């Protein structure tokens, strides 16, 4: 019954045969796919540039008199090689209104009043963040029942973070790296050799207790820019679903845990063990409420779950380090991807033995 009800809620998304490359294209696109704007003169639609990243250019198209505010996502050229845009559209529709799709873009709901929190507020509101992640995973699991194609996609932790990301990094060895400093070239060669070994080590370790791990639709990139906080209600919403697909739920949480260290990898800012236990308890309490109803409780300590989550933090470090190696060789964005990759792989190398020892000691007590 729930599946049929959700199926009825899936939106009809208007397909528009055009490509977008400038604000005027954005205006024409939203006029075609948003009924309220069909009779509005194109020049009356305000278009602003929101962001330009590695995989998209984002615009906001708005018309105050019609109370319409939309995000228009112009897909980066060639990104369909590693981003399933159909899957992205499907998952966006689980959490916000989708208005239209064109040959190289998508229009969907703009979350008015929301903005990324500061790192300090992100940490201060970690209990609300745990609740929001549980609700996100629950909603994703319910929505995923509408499409086995997306809900049963390969496990992202194993096949993306420790799979295709690693393959992309290895391919960098065949590229011309002469534009990098000698130090960066040495770092890239070391990472290209080491990251596949790190991935293999993680896969072997995870395989010993994978049967304990819950799997479901995961965001896989719930970093601070993709976590929005409402200015008045302080409600948390997540955006940008390019990498969303099934994974270990604890891996998704572990990936978010890394955000407490910021982009500069200040690992001392990560949550303490006690704070992690409290975070996971709040997460599992909300999950229990959503699946079993009000009054559901979570018994016992969270020590085993924290140990497993800590090891899955390694998936985030190795995967994003490999991603950064590939970006260093191809991106035109002015960012030190080599230094970022070195920081992430360095964190993994310094912690993996401790993580393995902790999780092996706790496996008999795992409750998930």
TrEMBL record:
Pathway: Phospholipid metabolism; phosphatidylethanolamine biosynthesis; phosphatidylethanolamine from ethanolamine: step 1/3. It comes from the Eukaryota. One of its GO terms (biological process) is phosphatidylethanolamine biosynthetic process. One of its GO terms (molecular function) is ethanolamine kinase activity. Gene3D superfamilies: 3.90.1200.10, Phosphorylase Kinase, domain 1 (3.30.200.20). It is an enzyme of class 2 (transferase). One of its GO terms (cellular component) is cytoplasm. This is ethanolamine kinase. PANTHER family: CHOLINE/ETHANOALAMINE KINASE, ETHANOLAMINE KINASE. Signal peptide: none annotated. The lineage of its organism: Eukaryota, Discoba, Euglenozoa, Kinetoplastea, Metakinetoplastina. Belongs to the choline/ethanolamine kinase family. Its EC number is 2.7.1.82. InterPro entries: Kinase-like_dom_sf.
């Amino acid at each position: 019954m729930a599946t049929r009800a959700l199926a009825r809620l899936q939106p009809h998304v208007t397909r528009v045969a055009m490509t977008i490359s400038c604000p005027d294209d954005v205006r024409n696109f939203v006029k075609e796919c948003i009924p309220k704007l069909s009779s509005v003169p194109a020049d009356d639609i305000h278009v602003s540039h929101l962001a330009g990243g590695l995989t998209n250019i984002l615009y906001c198209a708005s018309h105050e008199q019609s109370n319409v505010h939309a995000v228009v996502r112009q897909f980066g050229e060639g990104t369909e090689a590693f981003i399933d845009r159909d899957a992205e559209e499907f998952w966006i529709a689980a959490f916000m209104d989708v208005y239209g799709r064109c040959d190289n873009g998508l229009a969907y709901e703009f979350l008015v009043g929301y903005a990324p929190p500061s790192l300090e507020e992100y940490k201060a509101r970690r209990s609300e963040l745990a609740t929001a992640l549980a609700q996100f995973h629950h909603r994703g699991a319910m929505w995923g029942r509408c499409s086995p194609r997306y809900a049963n996609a390969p496990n992202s932790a194993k096949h993306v973070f420790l799979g295709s990301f690693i393959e992309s990094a290895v391919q960098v060895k065949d590229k011309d790296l002469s534009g990098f400093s000698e130090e960066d070239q040495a770092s890239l060669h070391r990472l290209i050799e080491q990251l596949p070994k790190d991935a293999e080590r993680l896969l072997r370790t995870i395989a010993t207790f994978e049967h304990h791990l819950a799997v479901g639709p995961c965001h896989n990139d719930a970093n601070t820019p993709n976590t929005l906080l409402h200015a008045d209600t302080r409600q948390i919403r997540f955006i940008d679903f390019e990498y969303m697909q099934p994974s270990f739920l604890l891996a998704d949480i572990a990936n978010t845990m890394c955000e407490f260290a910021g982009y500069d990898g200040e690992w001392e800012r990560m949550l303490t063990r006690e704070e992690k236990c409290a975070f996971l308890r709040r997460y599992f309490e909300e999950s229990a409420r959503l699946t079993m109803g009000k009054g559901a409780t979570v018994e016992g300590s969270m020590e085993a779950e924290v140990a497993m989550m800590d090891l899955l933090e390694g998936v985030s470090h190795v995967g994003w380090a490999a991603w950064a190696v590939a970006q260093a060789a191809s991106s035109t964005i002015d960012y030190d991807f080599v230094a970022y990759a070195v920081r992430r792989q360095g964190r993994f190398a310094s912690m993996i033995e401790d993580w393995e020892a902790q999780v092996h000691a706790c496996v008999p007590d795992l409750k998930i």
